[in-house]
Design goal:
mainly alpha, about 120 residues, single chain, about 0% strand, extended, 4 helices
């Protein structure tokens, strides 16, 4: 395809990229605080869900960091980062994993292996 699909400038350094992401996150928090799409009028449920997803996207790094570092902290420091039985963690994680797998299979038109994404 020879038609440009996007226009604009990309950030030139990692610090500029991080600064841009911080500005976007602040903007989303400001939208949530001032013009709360959950309580506003005129939006359908799907539109509200999209706004909430976009707003919480910038906050998803904290749980992701915890889930990525918790096994390493347990193995190296014998520290329990998450105080929960394995069944409770599985009940928390499995619906998300199933949702991700089903969404990817719907988007891609094929079923992909769950843990290779």
């Amino acid at each position: 395809m020879r038609i440009p699909q996007a226009a604009g400038l990309a950030t030139e350094s990692l610090s500029a990229h991080i600064g841009q992401r911080i500005r976007w996150a602040r903007g989303m928090v400001q939208i949530f605080r001032l013009d709360n799409p959950l309580t506003g009028k005129g939006l359908k449920f799907a539109q509200r869900l999209c706004y909430v997803n976009a707003m919480f996207h910038f906050l998803s790094g904290i749980p992701r960091l915890i889930f990525l570092t918790a096994p390493l902290a347990f193995l190296l420091l014998h520290a329990y980062i998450i105080y929960a039985p394995a069944l409770m963690i599985a009940l928390f994680v499995l619906p998300h994993m199933i949702h991700v797998s089903l969404t990817n299979s719907k988007i891609q038109g094929q079923i992909s292996p769950l843990f290779l994404e």
